[in-house]
Amino acid sequence: MKTNNEHQATLKRLERFSRFTDSSIGIPFTKFKFGIEALIGILPGVGDIAGLALSTYVLFEAQRLGVGWGVKLRIIINMLVDFTV
Questions:
Q1: 39: how many CB neighbours lie within 10 A of its CB?
Q2: Low-confidence residues of the chain: pLDDT under 70
Q3: Is the torsion defined by CA of 39, 43, 45, 46 positive or negative?
């Protein structure tokens, strides 16, 4: 079982990862932000596989935290929807 400090460290890592993949790049003079995953997604095929690989990191961290199957199933469903759409 993870200690509270390890749990907090993992959550901070996931927050930084989320910011990097979803909102790390801002468009000047607007409030619009996007992340590296949007840039990678521009590449047909390769971008989808890279996005799936990035999403897999979140699933691994959820497993390490001992998250229940319901949450992990939602993560997997989101991964599959993102990959196929």
A1: 14
A2: 1-2
A3: negative
